[in-house]
Write a structure and sequence with these properties.
The protein has 439 residues and is α/β, with parallel strands linked by helices. It has 3 domains: 194 residues, P-loop containing nucleotide triphosphate hydrolases (Rossmann fold), CATH 3.40.50; 107 residues, no CATH class; 106 residues, Helicase, Ruva Protein, domain 3 (Orthogonal Bundle), CATH 1.10.8. 54% of the residues lie in helices and 12% in strands. The strands form 4 sheets. Strands 2-5-8-1-9 form a 5-stranded parallel beta sheet, with helices on both faces. It has a two-stranded antiparallel sheet with strand order 3-4. The protein has a two-stranded antiparallel sheet with strand order 6-7.
């Protein structure tokens, strides 16, 4: 089990900078929080269990990078990650949705991450076994020197791709309709833990014969053989360790579960959700279909705009479990411009790739990029501030005509200059009612 974390906080921030512009304080906070988990694991002994994660509250309007920082961070350090909206837990009354479901979801993600890596480790052996099964379907096993030679020649042709489209008949396991679907909703989520697995194990596995191509059969056989080669108990144990020691749970819209003073109606539900969240964040054991998972060292990152409230309005016990507060800054015009072009997955790069797929070359002048950023900032000021997401609506309005008419446009070079941006967006942005409707 690899417990080493080679990236230093500065290296983590550098990697985050490839995708997210600005918000350096937030990047520093999450980088330190992640590195501290590795530091705790190096302490050893009883003290290791006493060092708890520094949970974080991110404060700022939508579209400034709160979710993106947490999500990208988890991808960089290969940590299980789930995002939940706090308001989901208030939708069906006081008790709301089972808050422990986020831990179960995190464990599911960890199992997928570890399973994917283990399948890569056994890929070569699984491919070899799958090849044997395909040969068995093409030429049933039989004895004799001549048959052995024939099989080897068949193997060579198989590896050259000669039989990719040939149909073979294989036994496919039927996908049974889940009993839970048949029975309908049966109550709280914990009643469903492992119930489906237990019921499916009681029933005999049924199969059906089907003709599929060798190419399709190979994928099925590789998956089947990989599952046989992987030690399931070892996979679950490693996934549990990964969940408990490197898992990240992102709770969005946490400001929406703050009471507004009344102790009736929805406020009761909001207060109840805060108290339901408290044991998870403090540290408890949650039953999952893979066994118990301890939440003591899971990193919780919460976020909210806090436009009409503050973190101090949370119940005191919950406040104390989120000691790190990070305020996100509103995006400037320069931020918008940088977001357009600098990140590895910037909108400009995305649209250039889309145009290239149709055989066109898309380019922008510097003045055009500056004007797009300026318009995006102005629309956010005039209407609802949705942060960097405004760039998507603006870019779609700007390029909509080209996106509709491709690939019938004769000129393969599409140059977007300041004049074109002004023609496409100027009137919309200057008319506040029109910009609210379109942008």
């Amino acid at each position: 089990m690899n417990r080493n974390h080679p990236l230093k906080p500065k290296e983590l921030v550098d990697k985050l900078n490839r995708y997210i512009i600005g918000q350096n304080e937030a990047k520093k906070s999450v980088a330190i929080a992640v590195r501290n988990r590795w530091r705790r694991q190096q302490v050893g002994g009883e003290m290791e269990e006493e060092i708890y994660p520094n949970n974080i509250i991110m404060i700022g309007p939508t579209g400034v990078g709160k979710t993106e920082i947490a999500k990208r961070l988890s991808m960089i350090v290969d940590a299980p990650f789930v995002k939940m909206e706090a308001t989901k837990f208030t939708e069906v009354g006081y008790i709301g949705r089972d808050v422990e479901s986020m831990v179960r979801g995190l464990m599911d993600v960890a199992v997928k991450i570890v399973g994917s890596r283990k399948r890569e480790e056994v890929q070569e052996k699984a491919e070899e076994l799958a090849e044997r099964k395909i040969l068995d379907h093409l030429l049933p096993i039989s004895t004799g020197e001549n048959m052995s030679e024939t099989r080897e020649k068949l193997r060579e042709r198989l590896r050259k791709g000669v039989f990719e489209e040939r149909k073979v008949e294989i036994d496919l396991q039927k996908k049974e309709r889940p009993f839970i679907e048949v029975l309908g909703t049966i109550g709280p989520e914990e009643l469903n833990i492992g119930l489906q697995d237990a019921l499916s194990n009681l029933m005999p596995k049924s199969t059906k014969k089907k003709f599929i191509t060798v190419k399709e059969a190979r994928e099925i056989f590789i998956r089947e053989e990989s599952d046989k080669l992987i030690d399931r108990e070892e996979l679950i144990e490693e996934a549990r360790w990964k969940t408990e020691n490197s898992g990240i749970i992102f709770i969005d819209e946490i400001d929406k579960i703050i009471s507004q003073g009344s102790m009736s109606g929805p406020d009761v539900s909001r207060q109840g959700v805060q108290r339901d969240l408290l044991p998870l964040v403090e540290g408890t054991t949650v039953n999952t279909k893979y066994g118990p998972v301890n939440t003591d060292h899971i990193l919780f990152i919460s976020a909210g705009s806090f436009s009409s409230s503050s973190p101090a309005d949370l119940i005191p016990e919950l406040q104390g479990r989120f000691p790190i507060r990070v305020e996100f800054k509103d995006l400037t015009r320069e931020d918008f411009r940088r977001i357009l072009v600098e990140p590895a997955n910037s909108l400009i790069k995305q649209y250039k790739a889309i145009f290239k797929a149709e055989g066109y070359q898309l380019q922008f002048t510097e003045e055009a990029l500056t004007l797009i950023a300026d318009y995006s900032k102005r629309v956010n000021e005039m209407s609802e501030n949705i942060g960097a997401r405004r760039l998507q609506t603006v870019m779609n309005a700007l390029l909509e005509d080209y996106l509709f008419r491709m690939p019938d446009i004769p000129e393969k070079l599409v140059n977007i200059d300041e004049k074109y941006v002004e023609e496409r967006l100027g009137k919309i942005v200057s008319d506040e009612d029109l910009s609210r409707y379109i942008l």
